[in-house]
Amino acid sequence: MKTKTDFPSINERTPEGRKPDGTSYRVLLVDDSMFVKKQIAQILSSEGFEIVGTASDGAEGLEKYKELYPNVDLVTMDITMPKMDGIASLEKIIEFDKNARVIMVSALGKQDLVKKALLIGAKNYIVKPLDRKKVLERVLLVLKKS
Q1: Domain boundaries, given as residue ranges, for the chain
Q2: pTM of the predicted model, to two decimals?
Q3: Confidence at 110, pLDDT banded by 50, 70, 90
Q4: Pairing of the two strands 102-107 and 50-55
Q5: Is 136 helix (H, G, I), strand (E, B) or coil?
Q6: Is the peptide bond before 70 cis (omega within 30 degrees of 0)?
Q7: pLDDT of residue 100
Q8: Does 44 score more than 90 pLDDT?
Q9: Rounded to whole angstroms, how far apart are CA atoms 26 and 11?
Q10: On the CB side of 18, how many CA atoms lie within 13 Å of its CA?
Q11: Contact 89, 77 (CB under 8 A)
Q12: Measured between alpha carbons, how far is 99 from 95 in angstroms, rounded to an integer?
């Protein structure tokens, strides 16, 4: 039986979730919806990103960021969450690390909050329902910029 090594792949490519040195970009997911966290995790993992942590609200997200710092390359942050919302959490993360790369995740119709988040220091945003191509496009845009 022939194995994969018998057929060099013409479609072989480096997964997008890898840095130039070959290590994975490390991502922290902050969202109160388990479904959304799972969806983002699957999209990113399929491209070689490493999910280093998850949190269910802004307060937990802030704590996890501080715990994992400096080993976090990117945070995806829901805007609307219990305890501490994504905007307040973003402010505290930026206060703690002015170079933090945070992408806001928002439902349609939250443009004012998205604008506020971008002014505070979010690097980009993703609109729900999630679109695989858009998620990867925005994440890579933010990671390659810095």
Answers
A1: 23-145
A2: 0.90
A3: confident
A4: unpaired
A5: helix
A6: yes
A7: 98
A8: yes
A9: 25
A10: 9
A11: yes
A12: 9
Please give the Cα distance from 49 to 74 (Å, whole number). 10
Burial class (CB in 10 A: 0-12, 13-18, 19+), 103: buried
- Is there a cis peptide before residue 20, judged by omega within 30 degrees of 0? no
At 28 the three-state DSSP class reads strand
- In whole angstroms, what is the distance from residue 72 CA to residue 25 CA? 8
In this prediction, residue 104 carries a pLDDT of 98
- pLDDT (average), residues 27-51: 97
Alpha helices in 29-131 (DSSP H): 34-45, 58-68, 86-96, 111-120
72-97 burial: b if 16+ Cβ within 10 Å, else e: bbbbbbbbbbeebbbbebbbbbeeeb
Percentage, residues of the chain above pLDDT 90 = 84
Among the CATH numbers 1.20.1260.10, 3.40.50.2020, 1.10.540.10, 3.40.50.2300, which is that of 23-145?
3.40.50.2300
